[in-house]
Amino acid sequence: MQVDSNDAKVIIIDDSINNIELLSDILADHYEVLFATSGQKALAMIPTMLPDLILLDVVMPEMDGYQIIKVLKNNPITAHIPVIFITAKSATEDMLKGFQLGAVDYISKPFAVEEVSVRVKTQIHQQLLIKALQVANEKLELLTRIDGLTGIANRRYFDEFLQQMINRAKRHQHTLSLILIDIDFFKFYNDHYGHQNGDSCLIAVAQQLSQYAQRDGELVARYGGEEFAIVLTELSAEKALAHAQKCLQAIEALKIAHEKSTCCDYVTISMGIVTIETPQEMTPENIIKQADIALYKAKESGRNQVVD
Hints:
By secondary structure, this protein is an alpha/beta fold. The protein folds into two domains: 9-141, Response regulator (Rossmann fold, 3-Layer(aba) Sandwich), CATH 3.40.50.2300; 155-307, Alpha-Beta Plaits (2-Layer Sandwich), CATH 3.30.70.270. It has helices spanning 17-27, 39-49, 65-74, 92-100, 113-143, 155-172, 186-193, 195-210, 237-253, 284-300; strands at 9-13, 32-36, 53-56, 83-87, 105-108, 176-183, 219-224, 227-233, 269-276, 306-307. The strands form two sheets. It has a five-stranded parallel sheet with strand order 2-1-3-4-5, sandwiched between helices. Strands 7-8-6-9-10 form a five-stranded mixed sheet, sandwiched between helices. The mean pLDDT is 93.
């Protein structure tokens, strides 16, 4: 995996301006170099600057390097940042203490330019590689949650999210609503207009529905085939029903022609909605079952409607 170190940030923490200038001369052509002349200044900078590497002197007034690294490693925001000690304290016990506190390397003063360059380059490369792998893993995780056709959440993520919202609703004692949605006569649509147009229809419906699940605690997902699901939280049954009615109107407003529908000239949806207020009733199985029953009634009653 290729990584670019040109944008890497290195912070030098040393009370000696001469040492800071010397190290800056070695590193400035390859990295963005920051510095702090005291532990307090460094600890104020690092959580916001988030450098890729810290070069830390041990012997400093007020707060020495050992105290500084303890604070950094106890802070979850900065604990991952590698620290190299650069110090005149080169006794074995000093080096061991540094490693025990979390340092990744130890350079003794006076140092050779080449040694500093190589050791810094090694740590920067490792840190950037770790970051690149984290980003790749996050993208991979996102892909496992997204429906490949419509770009909205898939069934797997819906299941996870519903359980999370159930837990939150129980904890904070608020309502939870679930809407199950079916595109009316979608098989007829696919047979008449072809699967490519069928896919375009699914995408259009998904994107329109996603406009109605924008708040924290809300989600629209592809439930399977031509079925979708919307999770809503902290709405009364009346407000959740009104929200579903808006979704119904929004899909018909797309005016996607559907000659084979027996309920409308355009693509429409049927919706079953349930709002749960009692914690004991908040299980995924119960919520889905009730919403599915309501959806069945909507389809049996002529489609293009919401039933609660």
